Amino acid sequence: MLAGGxxxxxQPWGPGYFPNVPLVTQDGRTVRFYDDLLKGKAVVINVIYTxxxxxxxxxxxNLVRVQxxxxxxxxxxxxxxxxxxxPERDTPSVLKAYAEKFHVGPGWLxxxxxxxxxxxxxxxxxxxxxxxxxxxxxxxxSLMIGNEPTGQWMRQSTVDNPQFLAAKISSxxxxxxxxxxxxxxxxxxxxxxxxxxxxxxxxxxxxSACHTIGQGDSLGPDLKGITSRRDKDWLRRxxxxxxxxxxxxxxxxxxxxxxxxxxxxxxxxxxxxxxxVLIHYLESQGAAPQGQADSQPSTPEPSGGAQGIRGRQ
Length: 313
What we know:
Number of strands: 7
Distance between the termini: 49 Å
CATH topology of the largest domain: Glutaredoxin
């Protein structure tokens, strides 16, 4: 111990702690949780299920942005794992289609397996909650970041700012010498911090993973000018309860769901005040770019609106 350097096996979170249960990747390959996925690796792990109507789509979209910021490190220095908590429905082919829907890059495995094995893995990782069995929508939107060789683990939210998450993952797992993106401007050239605005914060934290304002379609439509293209009462209902609108076969909601690759907009349980703040912010961003309205799906007028917001993924 006095010679310096960590003693082998000194950290408690190794092969004696993590289960070595079999899991199956989105490509149908069987792997062992400890031997193949954790041992000797730096990892980022979260849990989802593909039929989730709440934060899973938003979590996945946000982590795709994190993956892009980390660049070539993913799959070489850092490995991403997403484990389903609904293995009966989330077969390898379903997980593969889900990953492709969100444009997931290499170095990120989506995993299924036996329900009891997955629950055990969740508990060992600290990603299990009592509500999982009775209400999967209540599962933790948490991310476990771990360095198995050193035994260092840290939990973050899957919906944190992607730049923050990428920097946190990189510094925690690789050290400050390996930062994930092209260095930005120095503090001396940075613009003054603007006054906080609730609508801007709400959009950036919950919508920007899937939408832009004036930069073109992403996973969902460009929201520039959305308040002039849509009936506001329809917008309010859709932002507040998009899952209910789909369940009711609302024609606009259904058309948008089909057009944007069947990516569900989750119900984030926004209050009426939050909805109004978000609509006010979108309205303040101005009219749609020239010609954009022609590229949007046509739908019946006022009662159903014309173009959805597809906002919270």
